[in-house]
Design goal:
single chain, mainly beta, Maltoporin, Chain A, five-stranded mixed β-sheet, about 5% helix, about 55% strand, disordered N terminus
Length: about 850
Amino acid sequence: MREVSVSSHAGRAQSIIRALLIGASAAAMLPAMPAMAQGAPSSQAKVQFDIPPQSLEGAVTTFGLQSGLRITADQGVLAGRQSPGVSGAMGSFEALSRLLAGTGVTWRQIDGRSVALVRAPESAGGDAIQLGPVRVAGAGEGGSAAARYSSDASATEGTRSYTTKAPSSTSTGLALTLRETPQSISVITRERMDDQRLVSITDVLQQTPGINLTRDGGERFGISARGGAVNSFQYDGVLTQVQNTTRTVPQTALDTALYDRIEVLRGATGLMTGAGDPGGLVNLIRKRPTRELQGYVQTNVGSWNFFRAEADISGPVIKSGAIRARAVAMAQDNDTFMDGYSQKSSLLYGVIEADVTDTTLIRGSIDYQRYRPSGAPGVPGVFSNGKQTNFPRSYSSGAPWGGDDFDTYNYALALEQQLPHDWMFRANANFMTVERNFKSARYQPSSVNASLNEETGAATVDASYGYAKQDQQGVLASLSGPLHLFGREHELYFSYNYNRYYNDYAAWSGTGSKVINYYTWNNQFPEPESYTPALTQYFYYKQQGVNASARLKPIDGVNVILGGRLTNFDYRNYMVLLPSGSGSTYGDTRARGKFTPYAGLVVDLDRHHSLYASYADIFQPQASLDRNGNVLPPIIGSNYEIGWKGAFRDDRLNASVALYQVIRDNVGELDDGLLVPGTTDVQAYRPVKGAKTRGIEAEINGEVLPGWNVSASYTHVVTRDAEGVRSLTQIPKDTVKLWTTYKFDVAERPLTLGGGVNWTSATYYPYKTFRIAQGDYAVANLMARYEFNDHLSASVNVNNLFDKSYYVSMYTISVYGQPRNVMGTVRYAF
């Protein structure tokens, strides 16, 4: 959370900013609600403090450790200031006021364990006074719903942390910290995204432990974990689906400017998603409005004519802060290292939040993202004789007049209602509409054969155009709270989930010659004068489910987590090849009352260490067809996991080690050389029985020492079929991902230096009698940021420092990773 105090003479400016916020969020605007009652913080038990005079940053860090409070601060607000220290036994709030006396910094309470440090108003005379608290005591031990959630105390923005101390409900619905969660979960915070300039969801996933990312020659990405696909995306916990077949995948093209953090759960997620793949789940957590005025403007300039601008403004709409709003805007335009391939994108996000009563909060938001790539990435990966190619990285596979146009709209509503006895009801809804129009003018191998002749350079171009319309609706309603039984407090969670997906797709094929000489074409290919109908296809998906989970505490230090879900599922896929109508295919899959169990055990060894074990079951209907034209049966899997987790430095540092085994039946694999009957380029798949994936994941994230952030992970994964033969060899056995930053003072101003390396072991893809392969490789990155004052900063990022040439994806179309590139950033925050 980022806090800025507004001086009394800035009222006019604040009124103007409020008006801007109202305008940006007009579509989601809610009627004015009564202000939330304010209250003073409750008294605190006395704590022995011993903090000598020192820099304010060091004093606050020590205070957090001694008091147990969670401290957040505005960027640069502590820099260059000295604290008088504090000594003696006293309440934490009194000690904090003494610690800040004379520094020009004051504090505001967020909740019982959290405070935010802000610049003192001019009237404060430099002394640390308490401003009006964000949280109100009452309505049960946890406080009111409006007080607990209006400032989003779980936000990572402004914490300068690579981890989170806040609970996550992504795994089980229960509010569990990372150490309390009996599955592997990683959180990419706002600070991490800003430090590494991770501006797209795919940028984030490339840096996430245990995630493997591939890309075909278009705008389609393949995301996998633990040998399985990651096709489930949530927006603030509301499920959406990914359908790769028609390439209409807006989730992987999203920009990160509107997200506070991204949570990635690896392994089976059936308890929360019902039908799903055993790979994992990505939960996108949007930024929320803040009670205090804050914002920034930022511009980026980089290699290959990269230009990007962002603006973010947030604050109260009315003086009390009971209604608050936020607006985010972004525009980006860039060429790439590939000839004829460029990108344009833009984003608008408006959200408004209101405290209806002391126990009721409502929120509405709209976001619109526009993505306009031109040309096509990648190069032919193999010749028609099966040999692997070796083209320069500057080559690409498309003509500049072709490309994909995506327009993605998300509308979200939320209600949070505090109930008696510390129970909470939440209802969230997300409505997504995607419009896609494309023109394709790119090298086009069939699904099973490359078309590039090694001797002559003759190759086939796909000249076509088409559209897709996608609608998704998702609703999640939940009820959660404590249960007092046998002298102990347990926790319960119940939910209802509804998700509906519809995708309508049509394509036309260009007439005339489609043969080029790839060696000499220079990305030039004339647009066809006419087109003929090629195919129509639609997908319909609907599921409803009820979920229940519980955290039981039979004895001290032991947590038993049990859960289950009942799911009704409908899936239809219909395709007609035009103009004759021959080769039509139809798939219809249903499930009724499908039960998905969950079980976990967490044993606390002490306040820092825990051991855990978990089991999860999952099923996933498939769209792929076999050599007889039949839809493959659902993937059925079981996920077993054991591990250790640790939380240190007042939960500023999280670490984990996991060993897992995923057993799958009916996994679809390419049926080499065979097509679906009645088609000319639709690859047939076959179900594989008894596939097993075993692996190890280890990671550490957070602050190792004051000012030193680290994110490091190691992953080992191997998948074998029923005969024990290794499969999915295009997924590396071993990966190491390391990134670290350290902040220190230069000329009394903060300078942050950072760097890291991603290492990937050798991989190969079996292609006929050949292999498309590459050896292990490492990519190193650096960054530096200097803060000129409390508002203005500049940074530079150097990616692929040693200009390593490597593939991020290998197949009939292979895609290179970026060569060495530089990005500069200037940011003004207030």
